[in-house]
Amino acid sequence: AMIAFAGALRLQAGQHSPPKVDVTPRWDMATLPAV
Fold first, then answer.
1. GO MF terms on file (predicted)?
2. Which of 8, 25, 31, 35 has the most CB atoms lying inside 10 A of its own CB?
3. How far is it, in rounded angstroms, from Cα 6 to Cα 15?
């Protein structure tokens, strides 16, 4: 609950960081056999 409250305070203050998601596959999809 404290983390959510701290996040709400940051949003009210105008502080935010853009969402960042880096996705890296473990295997090349072209080399996997068909299921």
1. transferase activity
2. 8
3. 11
Where would I find the H helices in the chain?
2-12
Q: How confident is the model at residue 28 (pLDDT cuts 50, 70, 90)?
A: confident
What the block records as the tokens of 26 is: 């473990």
As a whole number of angstroms, the distance between CA 1 and CA 5 comes to 6
Whether 16 and 10 have beta carbons less than 8 Å apart is answered as yes
Q: Is the dihedral of CA 20, 26, 28, 29 positive or negative?
A: negative
